[in-house]
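Support request from a user on the community tier.

User writes: "When I paste my structure tokens into the form, the page sometimes reloads and wipes my input. The last time it worked, I copied everything first. Here is what I submitted, just in case something in the input itself triggers the reload:"
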């Protein structure tokens, strides 16, 4: 079974997290740049952005599909390389993946990610 790991981290730590994941063989991921609110607001950016005036925190979102057996390892890598020890370091979600289909040839299953 496969899982989708979604991690919201500080943008300044993205390169460290990405490099550590690749080093451990987790090469394939999608990264998004975004803004959000939570319990933490960046004290240096209280007014948000011009695009989203209500948003207070810049985030990088990593999405990575992995086999269930690899979830704990991926989370450990993200926690190790994506934390400062302060509020606002982020959060990780894990969701089940019901089906994977490669668009190019219609193949299905975890092997399409290799």
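"...and here is what came back when it finally went through:"
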């Amino acid at each position: 079974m496969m899982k989708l790991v979604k991690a919201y981290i500080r943008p300044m730590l993205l390169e460290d997290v990405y490099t550590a994941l690749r080093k451990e063989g987790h090469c394939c991921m999608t990264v998004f740049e975004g803004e959000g609110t939570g319990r933490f607001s960046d004290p240096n950016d209280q007014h948000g952005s011009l695009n989203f005036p209500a948003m207070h925190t810049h985030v990088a979102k990593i999405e990575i599909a992995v086999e269930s057996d690899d979830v704990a390892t991926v989370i450990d890598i993200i926690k190790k390389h994506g934390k400062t020890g302060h509020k606002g370091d982020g959060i990780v979600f894990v969701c089940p993946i019901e089906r994977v289909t490669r668009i190019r040839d219609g193949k299905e299953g975890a092997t399409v990610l290799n």
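Agent notes: The reload is a front-end session timeout and is unrelated to the input. The longest helix spans residues 71-81. The longest strand covers residues 57-67. Escalated to web team.
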